[in-house]
Amino acid sequence: MAGRRWMSVWYILTAPLMLWDAGYCLMRPRSMVGGDLHWIWPVYDFYGKVDHVYGVQAFENGDGFANAAAVLNVIENIFAILYLWFTHICPSEFAPLAGYTGSAMTLAKTLLYVFQEYFCGFCAIGHNTLSGMVLYWILPNLAWTTISILIMYHLGKDIQSAMKTASSLSTTTSPPSSNGLNKQSNGHARNSSSKCEK
């Protein structure tokens, strides 16, 4: 488990942030400047001027990209929460699959966000200075991309090892045991804990 602790820390730190971001998008215009809920998202008054996808103009023009990405944020975080649940609360061999799926969605959404901006000629961020673009847009997206890839790599290896173990066990006379599968999951629990039993 220690070898995967950094993944749990990442999910614990980023899940609230991503849900907060999704909340801003899905609660517009109430979350925007002048709205009764803007006090929850005051930083977006600034960030909407950095990235116009979050800005007033995009909302007034009916641009649905931010809201579509926000819905994906919610789905990604369901998988992140499932990973934490299956790893720390109700141990299950499904933990690697949940974490891998959530990170794959995060990676795909981030790349879509980047390529959409590239193919529109940097229509939402091109007005920034180079330093501002690097600090507020490039570095955050680089972080999401890099860490998502790292999580997919490590959990993908866990899943592959579990599949190999299951395949080898299926060739023996004894039925596959949950013990064999989970030893290859690098610390993901062998069986559901008693608190998770029906």
TrEMBL record:
- For region Disordered, the annotated ranges are 168-198
The organism's place on the tree of life at top rank: Eukaryota
Transmembrane domains' residue ranges: 65-85, 97-115, 135-155
Q: Which UniProt keywords are listed?
A: Membrane, Signal, Transmembrane, Transmembrane helix
UniProt feature, compositional bias: Low complexity: 168-178
- Signal sequence segment: 1-25
Q: What ranges does the record list as Polar residues composition bias?
A: 179-198
**Protein name per Swiss-Prot or TrEMBL:** EXPERA domain-containing protein
Species of provenance: Collybiopsis luxurians FD-317 M1
